[in-house]
Amino acid sequence: MILQRRNRILRANPAIRAMVAENVLQPADFIAPLFIDEGENVAFEIPSMQGYFRRSIDGTITEVKELWAMGIKSVLIFIKAPDELKDNTGKEAWNPDGLMQRAVKAIKNAVPGMVVMTDVALDPYSSYGHDGIVENAEIINDGTVEALVKMSLSHAEAGADFVAPSDMMDGRIGAIRNAFEQHGYTRTGIMAYSAKYASCFYGPFRDALDSAPGFGDKKTYQMDYANRIEAIKETQLDIEEGADIVMVKPAMAYLDIIREIKNSVTVPVSAYHVSGEYAMIKAAAKMGWLNEEKAIIESLTSIKRAGADLIATYFAKDAVRILQG
Ligand SMILES: NCc1[nH]cc(CCC(=O)O)c1CC(=O)O
Ligand SMILES: [Mg+2]
After folding, report:
1. In the chain, how long is the greatest CA-to-CA distance?
2. Which parts of the sequence bind Mg(2+) (predicted)?
3. Which of 80, 205, 220 for mutating ligand 1's site (highest number of atoms within 8 Å of CB)?
């Protein structure tokens, strides 16, 4: 054959492939989610998330130091509240001495450079396991936003660099931004879960925090996975209301949405490779059906290729270890 173009030339060996790679993962791409519990020396392996732990603050600090030493710049923190602190107001969420607030201070104190992001939603504190306040079996919007504002202010006060509202109530980004302005928190960022879908892939996370909804599902606030255009509407509105970073969640089943958002906004886009996506790889690898390391890197690269500037993933540490060979 006489060909004008032989595309295989650019795939001939690892050096050439590295030279022409369009997307390369790096440690600063990752946000490491951390599950935090009360107590000391607690390291509870989440049954549906093998190799991932819920830790007390002491062990969390050790973990954060390791992540920082590896070049990971950001953590996203979640807490597990004991049942006796759960109610239908969520008031423990803005307790200045609550677990979240203590954890933020401890992390910023131990590793000041680490960018600390906090989950903002009522589910870990809700006796109903919902992200908002329940009235007549409905998750009310405006009353919930008031609670989320108090929660966000208490995280800012504790020293969080970013709050990350994951609840999908309408208007909460604007309300939080206004409150930050009014209270002088002009350096606290907002990473909005803007296109968060009602997904079965959050199952293992709800095991990790004991936060499964006590009745019904989250479809009246989280998005319908049949929808694409709606993700743009949600995301553009969050940006107008003041979001610094927007997020798509989950990631791998929503690569089209990540790309769509990346093409339509001018703020950084993050994607959350969620607990169920972690569990699928872990389970298949355990069965010997997938090569775990290859599956991790291919998955995360595909999320970056789709357009994610940042990836929240339980594989953050593994990925850096694998990349550094
Ligand atoms: N607002 C709660 C919250 N924040 C992050 C996740 C899921 C993360 C994961 O599955 O890894 C959830 C669960 C949910 O919405 O039910
Ligand atoms: Mg919205």
Report:
1. 76
2. 234
3. 205
What is d(CA 14, CA 36) in angstroms, rounded to the nearest whole number? 41
Q: Residue ranges for the binding site for Mg(2+)? A: 234
Residue 167 CA, closest ligand 1 atom number: 1
Q: What is the CA radius of gyration of the chain?
A: 20
Domains, the chain, ranges and CATH?
27-323 (3.20.20.70)
> Is 249 marked active-site?
yes
The identity of residue 83, as a single letter, is D
Phi first, then psi: give them for residue 318, nearest 5 degrees: -60, -45
- ipTM of predicted complex: 0.97
CB 242 within 8 A of CB 177: yes
Express each pLDDT in 121-151 by its tens digit. 999 999 999 999 999 999 999 999 999 999 9
* pLDDT at residue 209 in the model: 87
- Relative to beta strand 115-120, strand 74-79 is parallel
Q: Which segments are annotated as binding site?
A: 234
Q: How crowded is residue 8: how many other Cβ atoms within 10 Å of its Cβ?
A: 7
Q: Residue 78's beta-bridge partner residues?
A: 35
